[in-house]
Structure formats: structure tokens, C-alpha cells
Amino acid sequence: MGSPGLADLLFGAFALMLVIEGLLPFISPPRWRSVFEKALQMSDGQIRFIGLSSMLAGIAMLYVFLT
To answer: Is residue 55 part of a domain?
Structure first.
């Protein structure tokens, strides 16, 4: 078998993200509910900042591990 293509890598990364995202609701549903209740109280700007920070951290990790 050859090395995986870009589509395979993206599909694998998406699958891994779903597994990680599913851990908290599976392990501790009350904690997961609490996190969402706190998120509902946040402003749009706060949520956007968290999203931006997460994207930048992901890009930085990709840069470090792929170069």
C-alpha cells in the first residue's frame, strides 16, 4: 500500500475529531451539559475568540508536526 492521500488524511482527522468530541458526553453527561449551559451565557465575541484561538492552535500544531 502507498502513502495515504490528502482526502484520506482529512477523513481520518475528521474521524478522530468526532471521537475526541464524543468523549466528554460519553464519560460525564452532567459535566457536558454544564459546559453547554456556560457556553449559552457567553457573548458572541467570547465564542468567536475561543474558536479563533482553537483554529490558531491547530494551525500551529500542524505547522510544527508537518515541517
So the answer is: yes
Tell whether 15 is covered by a domain.
no
Report whether 25 contacts 32 (CB < 8 A): yes
User: pLDDT tens digits, residue range 4-50?
Assistant: 788 888 898 899 999 999 999 999 999 999 998 999 999 999 999 99
Q: Looking at the 3D structure of the chain, how many domains does it have?
A: 1
Question: Using CA atoms, how far apart are residues 47 and 52, in angstroms rounded to an integer?
Answer: 9
Is position 11 within any domain? no
Model-wide pTM > 0.85: no
By residue range, what is the domain housing residue 27? 21-66
CA distance 17 to 11: 10
